[in-house]
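testing teh design pipeline on a random one, pls ignore if ur not involved
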C-alpha cells in the first residue's frame, strides 16, 4: 500500500489557489489560440435620473426706469416677481420700489401694462414709487367708479376711473396709483379682487381714507392725470412671439394669441370688470384656456375651480363667461 501523507490547511489553500490560477492560464491560452476575443467588461450603470428642471429662458430684454435712467439688460426670469428682482438688481433698488411695468412706453398707459406676456421685441419700463398721498372718500352710490388690477407681486393699483363717478370727482386720485392702505389697514400683498371687494363693502355715506402711492414721474409727465382710454386691451408686443410668464412652472415662448383667443379674452376681461371691478388680461387668458375645449358649463366650472378656485367666481359670472366663449367660437360678436 502507498502511504498517503496528510496536508496541512495552509498547504491545502495554497494548492487550491495554484489550481485556480492554472485554470485561468489555460482559458487564456485557449482563447488566444482560437482567435476569439474575450467579452469586454460591462459599463457602469448610469445614475438614476433626478427631478426635471424647468428651463430658464435666456432671452435678453432691455429695460429702463420710466422716470428716466440708463438702459439695462435683464434675462433669466420666469415670473413677474423674478422680473422685478432682475430690474431692481440692474438699477440697484429694492424690488418693492417697483409698482408696475409698461411695455414700449414710459407713460402711465394702462393699454401698455405688462401682464403675463412680453413680446420678444418689447422694451420694459419700470414705474417706481413716487409721492404718497391720503384721500378721504365718501361713497354716494354703491360703486366708486374704480377698476383695480395688480402687478402680480403684491401691489394693487387703479387701472381705470369711470367718468362722472365718485372717484372721478377727486382730482388727486389718478390711474396708476397704488392703493397701499384703506383706513390705515395695509393691503400690500392682497390680490386685486380682494381690494375691489373691500372697497365695495365700504358703507355709503361713511367717509373712509385711501392711502395711495403714485408712480414717480419724469419732468414731462408732471401734472398729468392719466385716464385709461376706452379702447380695447389685450395683445401687446411687436413680434409674433411672446414670453408667457407663469406663477408656477417655467416661462414659455409661444405665438401671440390667435383671433379667437384674443376676442374671447377681451370679452372675459370686460366681464371681470363688470362683475368684480377688476381688469386682468392674464387672468382672462387663463379663464379662456380653461374653457375653450370644454363641452358643457359643468366641465368648464370644474376646470376653472381646479386652477382658480381661490376666486370663488359666482355662478352667474361663469355662465356669462361660458356664453361669451361660445359666441366667439360661433362667430357671434
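output:
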Amino acid at each position: 500500500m502507498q502511504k498517503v501523507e496528510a496536508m496541512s490547511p495552509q498547504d491545502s489553500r495554497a494548492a487550491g489557489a495554484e489550481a485556480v490560477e492554472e485554470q485561468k492560464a489555460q482559458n487564456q491560452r485557449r482563447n488566444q489560440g482560437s482567435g476569439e476575443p474575450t467579452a469586454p467588461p460591462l459599463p457602469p450603470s448610469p445614475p438614476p435620473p433626478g427631478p426635471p428642471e424647468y428651463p430658464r429662458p435666456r432671452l435678453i430684454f432691455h429695460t429702463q426706469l420710466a422716470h428716466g435712467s440708463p438702459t439695462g439688460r435683464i434675462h433669466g426670469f420666469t415670473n413677474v416677481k423674478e422680473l422685478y428682482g432682475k430690474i431692481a438688481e440692474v438699477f440697484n433698488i429694492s424690488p418693492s420700489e417697483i409698482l408696475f411695468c409698461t411695455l414700449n412706453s414710459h407713460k402711465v398707459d394702462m393699454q401698455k401694462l405688462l401682464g403675463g406676456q412680453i413680446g420678444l421685441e418689447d422694451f420694459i419700463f419700470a414705474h417706481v414709487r413716487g409721492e404718497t398721498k391720503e384721500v378721504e372718500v365718501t361713497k354716494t352710490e354703491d360703486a366708486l367708479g374704480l377698476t383695480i388690477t395688480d402687478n402680480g407681486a403684491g401691489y394693487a393699483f387703479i387701472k381705470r376711473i369711470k367718468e362722472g363717478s365718485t372717484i372721478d370727482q377727486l382730482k388727486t386720485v389718478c390711474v396708476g396709483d397704488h392703493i397701499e392702505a384703506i383706513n390705515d389697514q395695509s393691503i400690500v400683498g392682497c390680490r386685486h379682487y380682494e381690494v375691489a371687494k373691500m372697497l365695495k363693502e365700504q358703507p355709503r355715506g361713511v367717509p373712509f381714507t385711501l392711502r395711495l402711492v403714485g408712480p414717480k414721474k419724469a419732468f414731462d409727465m408732471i401734472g398729468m392725470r392719466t385716464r385709461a382710454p376706452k379702447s380695447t386691451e389685450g395683445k401687446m408686443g411687436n413680434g409674433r412671439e411672446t414670453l408667457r410668464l407663469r406663477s408656477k412652472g417655467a416661462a414659455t415662448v409661444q405665438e401671440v394669441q390667435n383671433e379667437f383667443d384674443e376676442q374671447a379674452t377681451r370679452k372675459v376681461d370686460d366681464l371681470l370688470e363688470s362683475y368684480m371691478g377688476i381688469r386682468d388680461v392674464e387672468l382672462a387668458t387663463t379663464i379662456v384656456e380653461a374653457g375653450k375645449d370644454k363641452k358643457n358649463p359643468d366641465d368648464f366650472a370644474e376646470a376653472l375651480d381646479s386652477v382658480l378656485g381661490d376666486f370663488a367666481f359666482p355662478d352667474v359670472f361663469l355662465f356669462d363667461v361660458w356664453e361669451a366663449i361660445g359666441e366667439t367660437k360661433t362667430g357671434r360678436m
